Fold these 2 entries.
Entry 1:
Amino acid sequence: MKSNTNEINLAWAGGFIDGEGCLRIAKHTNAGGVNPIYHLHLAISQNRLETLEHCQKILGVQSSICQFPYRKSFRRPVYLLTYLCANARDALILLLPYLVRKQAEARLALEFALRLQLRRGGRTPHSAEEIAIREEYYRRMQELK
């Protein structure tokens, strides 16, 4: 009975993320860095903190919730649930069977994550070929949006 409940909860989380989530391969460059930094980013914004906490509990993967700075356009506080790098990968592995709209993005994100092994090492220069591969994943994800 418990696994059935877990599947129902994962299906709910998959639908919630399909509708409210943002999945991307982020690219950052910094002045002192040797390479552009590419990482996996899964985020869900919502004005109901309890809903984000519920999703966070279902997935059981390390993540963070923060509140957006106040803006006059907000009628209520807005919160952001974020999964980064290996934690985004782990969340996507759980969610993949339940995603519909974001299925192709999740498959590409997982391919990217498994190819890079999501390890630190931004100070070690990459070959031009490796940078081109990472940039190609970044470009392909943008095309899926």
Note: The first helix runs from residue 2 to 20.
Entry 2:
Amino acid sequence: MSVTVNDLVVYHYEKQPSDFKAGELLHNFNGTDYRVMENYGRGNLLLMQMNTGMFVVGEGVEAYKRYPKDEIPTAENIQTGIEWGSGVYLGNDISAIDFKQLHEEYSGPPEPNERGEYEIEINETLSHTESVKADSYDEALDDVKDRYDRSEIVLDAESFAGVDFVPKNRSR
């Protein structure tokens, strides 16, 4: 059996608003289902292909409804799905994926709050290593925690190990 041009359906596409929530199941018009793992904003999504477990970053993802071009849209002929400009296929070995790097690369800048302010969280890291003689790791850990709780071990400016400045997470 051969397919001719007359057998092909030409569709009318209409862009649909969508906020693409993590966990949402999306369908593309090629017949593949994807789970939204993370929404980076600006139309960039971390997706997991449902039938293979493969991760992909969809760039410029948009939601559409479509129906045959020469027909009136009805509940029976409308299909919903996604399309994207390009995809970066990451494989399905999650231990080989640098999720922090993906977030940094594909996320857009944060939006200001309702007062027009940007909220920047400052995270300082203090670090100190304590050597403990004990019969087991659990015993050593308990000893260090107890001494820390009793303020026998105090981290101060001498323990400074780094600082990060990150946008304060907030729900949209």
Note: Residues 137-149 form the longest helix (13 residues).
